[in-house]
Amino acid sequence: MLELAIGIILGGCALGAGCAMIAGIGPGIGEGNAVAKACEAIGRQPESKGDVTSTMLMGCAIAETTGLYALVIAILLIFVAPNMLVNTLLNALGK
Amino acid sequence: MKNKSRRFVLTDILYIAMMIVPVIIGIVIKTMTRPVGDGVSITGAQVYFKIPMPIQDLIISESQINSLIVMISVFGLCLYLTHGLKTRNISKRQHLAEWIIEKTDNMVSSNMGEFFISFSPFIIAMLALSGFSSLLTLLGLYAPTSDLNIVGGWAILVFILITYYKFKCGPLQYMKSFAEPVALLAPMNIISEIATPVSMAFRHYGNVLSGSVISVLIAYALGNLSNLLLGFLPGVLGDIPFLRIGIPAVLSIYFDVFSGLLQAYIFAMLTMMYVSGGFPSDLYFKRKNRKIKN
Question: CB A72 to CB B206 under 8 A?
Answer without folding.
Answer: yes
